[in-house]
Amino acid sequence: MQGNINGLKTLILKDNPSAHSIHCFAHQLQLTFVVVAKKHHDVNNFFDILANILNVVGGSYKRREMLIDDQAKKLDELLVLGEVHTGNGLNQELGLQRPGDTRWGSHFKTLRNFISLFSSIVHILGVLSNESSNYQEKALAKSLVEDIRSYKFVCILHLILKLLAITYDLNMALQKKDQDIVSTMKLVDFTKRQLQTMRESKWNSLIEDVSSFCDKNGIVIPKMDKKYALGKSKRKSSTVTYSHHLYVEVFCATIDLQLSELNSRFSEVNTSLLLGMASLSPDDSFANYDKNKIMKLATYYPNEFPASKLEDLSYELDNYIDYVR
Asked: Of 262, 106, 269, 103, which is closest to residue 195 (Cα–Cα)?
């Protein structure tokens, strides 16, 4: 639709050079997620592994039943130990679903359940790697167990879940049919600040969560000051430490991609256009009216509002708002 040569945007700009295009709100947020998955090798690889697990574990009714049975068995053990409590709405049966390509919230639910069901997933993959009659399936199950029981996979799992949690409220707001543009743009700005705060001060808390998860599930925690091994081969080492790789090349790089895409798709121009239009809304006796934002909106259309007309517009807006109110 927005192709550089024959897209609708190009055709409109031929007739009106001052025209601006703004993606659907929900589509803009989804695009940031897809771009991160495609641009960052480790994140892209993480989702490939996740997709394979969802296909293998959730690929048949029998395996889904195995997941439910193992989950129930572990819950009974925890109840006996007193580590969980019963009650209405507690300890509900969880399941794994394939996240929809255009549903940001479904990714969040899938990863949250993945963490809760982690030990059961490992158990089922272990059964398949030992008992499956299909050689390829056995090999895949064994490989997936090694993949998800790595510190790096667990780190990215928790990182992506936290990123999704930060953007969850924004996602819900962007999918509403009756969107409040002013409130939504405030949420966009709030989300950007939250991402920046996470980048600057949440690394240690993430590592604490990851290490705690690894201890609980018997996953080896690597020595952070050692050289990072490339791929699965311990013989091939990079020039950076494991700590540097996870912090700089994974944690910071992933958040930076998110921020970059949000800043690009919710740019200053797009934000000004939306807030300017919201200022013209007659809802609640023009509750969102803001003369300065409308004047800024007009500057983006120089053919319609040259300098002389901008002065006239300023006076006209003063008279207009007094009249309509």
From this structure: 262
Backbone angles phi and psi of 229, in degrees to 5 = -85, 125
How many angstroms separate the most distant Cα atoms in the chain? Answer: 81
For residue 309, which of 292, 295, 288, 320 has the smallest C-alpha distance? 295
Q: Could you give the CA distance from residue 28 to residue 21 in angstroms, rounded to a whole number?
A: 12
C-alpha to C-alpha distance for 187 and 170, rounded to whole angstroms? 6
Tokens of 158: 């928790």
Q: How far apart are CA 288 and CA 281, in angstroms?
A: 7
Alpha carbons 251 and 203: distance in angstroms, whole number: 8
| pTM summary value | 0.74
Q: Residue 14 burial by CB count (10 A; 0-12/13-18/19+): exposed, middle or buried?
A: exposed
93-151 per-position pLDDT tens digit: 445 555 544 455 577 888 888 898 898 889 889 888 888 888 888 999 999 999 999 99
Other Cβ atoms less than 10 A from the Cβ of 35: the count is: 16
**Which of 117, 135, 134 is CA-nearest to residue 64?**
117
Q: How far is CA 234 from the centre of its chain?
A: 31
Task: Looking at the chain, list the stretches that DSSP marks H as alpha helix, in order from N- to C-terminal side.
Answer: 8-15, 25-39, 41-57, 61-81, 104-116, 118-131, 135-148, 151-174, 181-201, 203-216, 242-244, 253-265, 268-278, 283-286, 291-299, 307-324
The conformation of residue 241, written as its DSSP 8-state character, comes to: E
SS3 218: coil
Give 237's strand partners: 229
Q: pLDDT tens-digit profile of 12-71?
A: 556 666 566 655 555 555 556 666 777 899 999 999 999 898 888 877 777 778 777 777
